[in-house]
Amino acid sequence: MKNIRYWIALLAALLVFTPARAEEEKPDAKGEMPGAEKKTEPKEKEPVLSITEHEVTIGGKLIKYRATAGYLVLKDSKDKPRANIFFTAYTKLGETDPAKRPLTFSFNGGPGSSSVWLHLGALGPKRVVMTDKGESLPPPYKWVDNEYSWLDQTDLVFIDPVSTGYSRAAKDVDPKQFHGFTGDIESVGEFIRLWTTRNQRWASPKFLVGESYGTTRAAGLSDYLQQKYDFYLNGIMLISSIMNFQTASFAPGNDLPYQLFLPTYTAAAWYHGKLKGDLAKDLPKTLARVEEFVMKDYTLALMQGAALPEAERQRIAQQLAAFTGLSVDYVLEQNLRINIFRFVTELRRSEHRTIGRLDSRMVGISDNGDGFFDPSLEMINGGYTTALNDYMRRELKYENDLPYEILTGAVRPWSYSNVENEYLNVAETLKNAMTKNPFLKVWIANGHYDLATPYFATKYTVDHMGLDPTIRDHLTLTYYEAGHMMYIHKESREKLKADYEAFLDTTLKSAGVR
Prior knowledge:
Oligomer: single chain
Number of helices: 13
Shape: globular
Helix content: 25-40%
Number of domains: 2
CATH superfamily of the largest domain: Alpha/Beta hydrolase fold, catalytic domain
Largest sheet: 10 strands, mixed
Radius of gyration: 29 Å
Order of helices and strands: HEEEEHEEEEHEHEHHHHHEEHHEHEH
């Protein structure tokens, strides 16, 4: 009897406790049983970087440095890759105190350009070999030590924005989100923050240097980095600057470019021997005359439009012809408004020659049947592309089978959705950054023969920034007898380095670093 009662009690216990136990073992929402070892998705490994060590002589001093080439992965809020940003960094060996060693982030423009131009033309430890004037040598092209590199003064990080260089959007990520002013600023800004953090460089004096649209990016980043990350810069260097796009947009109803490009038309005409009399003698004096003409007579004439009296129209046309080397009839035919693409093909049309847009000193054959081309761009494309691809594998030991996109059209159309129905003007953004950070210094380098971002347009932009009097002298401009990429010209490359050192010294002294 006792045995029967024992088995009945045991069965009752099982009936009571089994449902509860079954409830505990129900799989969760992910289909996993309680107590089971959690399955975690393997994290993607960070791309392997190529790290090598080298030396270069700059200013008579031997500089030993480490080069790092590879990807930095940008991720979203869920820790999933968004983009692989390619960079090349150069850091001087033997430096132990980041507070005493400046750090400079560099990029070019386009939009759609890699960082190759500043990298292998002016700032990096190697440069492409060209003539002293800046003309291309025949292939095969060569690169050599750059005795004018900025590496003796600052560590350098060259950034290729998404879709340029080796940089690409991550798998299944639409690259178009990076192909616009806002997406570009956000991605490059995140790269700068992350690289600085991982390399323990927050304590360093920090700088940006951009060229062409890269100056637009740098100006945009100046305030973005402050607002988003409390990342305050010591200095910004703008090479061949464009901040106010109204100054370069030859659109109906916008007369500003016709006025601001004129001094550079004059410089080009002077260089090619198309000016006469006193105008052909001294370029600085001639430029002063044309600038005065722009600020007074020419601006007033264009403002009157069709109401301009015929006698005044004839007078302005004669003056424009004298300053540009074009005929009076041609100037009148163009209604006193000479478009940049007409000027470069018209100046030497009788010789079947086109002058350069990036550098109006350069000349190419115009009757090739392919329409307009820029001879000054063609003169650098081959050499820089060859040098970069050779240099990456042989010198930096970095291997990647992707094509290195020197200057790609894959980013077109570039989105300016942040300024719909108006011209982009980041001069106001830069002003905000300088106002909030009164220690920020800005240096702008301009080429007299640059028909892509004319020097007088930059001066106009700066003069209209409305900077407070206490910080106006924090922005300086320098000028060079070359074009958009003034560093391809030997004398200008030397002057650019000297002007940079002066700017850096002043900036660091004001920060108490020197």
